[in-house]
Amino acid sequence: MATTDRDYYELLGIGREAGDSEIKRAFRSLARELHPDVSDEPDAEARFKEVVEAYEVLSKRETRELYDRYGHAGLRSGGFQPGHVDFGNLADLFSAFFGDDILLGGRRRRGRGADLAATVEIELVEAAHGASRDVPFEVAVTCTRCAGSGAEPGSAVTACPTCGGAGRLQQVTRSVFGEFVRTQACPDCSGSGRRIEEPCAECRGAGRVVEERTLTVEIPPGIHDGQRIRLTGEGHAGVLGETAGDAYVEIRIRPDEHFVREGDDVYTTVGVTITQAALGATITIPTLDGEEELELAPGTQPGEIVVLRGRGMPVLQGFGHGDERVLVNVLVPRRLTDEQRRLLREFDEQADEQTYGKHEGLFDRLKSAFR
Fold first, then answer.
1. Which alpha helices (H) appear in 99-148, and where do they start and end?
2. N or C: which end of the chain has fewer CB within 10 A?
3. Which residues of 258-275 are buried (b: 16+ CB within 10 A; e: fewer)?
4. Domain span at 130
5. How far apart are CA 344 and CA 349, in angstroms?
6. Given a cut of 90, is residue 106 above it in pLDDT?
7. What pLDDT does 350 receive?
């Protein structure tokens, strides 16, 4: 599936302020119209793939934020590969909209188990270097006693007499506009099409039991706050051999006492005395790799920003690092002795315009640094 550089909001026919429900409605409408099994238009398949790609990006918070901020280039640098989306995977999307049993690619597919979700908090330094976490889940797994059938081993399983084993009931309504067919899950068998004569003693006919599992989550370096990691097939087991759902782990990054993150750059502040700023000094600063020494040049000004290239956050699933930007805060003494006041007055009397040189305002330096 080739990627497209068309605007994703334009493809779905929605505005950039659209919420999740509006995105789903737009995708549902276009998917019904353009799916190759339904549409006779020659370009339906290509347009369908573009719509799916747009939905894949805009329906997930992390990819939507990347796209809104950096466009297609941001998605590529963030590791998004829409080419991996295929019609088989789209069955899960259509199941959410059109029911558990759907016709896709000329074959009928059943639904899958429900997804799981958990949240993990990490430190910014862990986000910079990557981390591993053991996350506990309560998950429904296939019952080993009945192998997921829900029936006691050796007992009979028959077709549901209400739906004849179809799992669905259809109701036909006639009107002046024609016939309307309404399909719903059979209320007697809950859509399974089976009747269990003797329920399994372990799962009581459910075919699944709940147990606690611990999954190891590998958190990649450079991950952003709020992004999710998907563990495919680690969600709740499906019914009667259906595919298991996925587990999603949302990563939250705790506020750091030293750094503020902006994209892949990190900002920190260091305080120096007026004499250190005027004469130059070797100071200790925090970095993502621990404390390091930094040489301050004589005449360092308040608000000056020292940029450490490549010392910021790693680019997620990409190459290189952001920068660390150190804001110099010159500390002005609050309490002086009489002798200190005398010395400062003497210095001020001997200072002239050449002592201070050309003055650049703090606001100008900040604008320059952010550019």
1. 124-129
2. C
3. bbebeebbbbbebebeee
4. 112-156+197-255
5. 9
6. no
7. 87
Q: Which two structure tokens, joined as six digits, stand for 56?
A: 């894949």
Contacts of 273 (CB under 8 A, 6+ apart): 330, 331, 333
Q: 42 with 152, same domain?
A: no
DSSP structure class, residue 161 = T
Q: Are residues 344 and 282 both part of a single domain?
A: yes
Closest CA to 294 of 268, 333, 332: 268
Determine the Cα angle at 256 with ends 371 and 271, to 5°: 65
pLDDT, tens digit, 9 for 90 and up, residues 293-331: 999 999 999 999 999 999 999 998 888 999 999 999 999
Report whether pLDDT(121) > 60.
yes
| Alpha carbon distance 222, 20 (integer Å) | 26
Q: What is the reported pTM?
A: 0.59
Quote the tokens at residue 76.
């590529």
Residue 282 has pLDDT above 90, yes or no: yes
Q: And the tokens for 258?
A: 């030293």
CB contact at 8 A, 113 and 237 = yes
CA-to-CA dists, residue 283 to 52, 173, 297, 298, angstroms? 53, 82, 11, 13
- pLDDT, position 271: 94
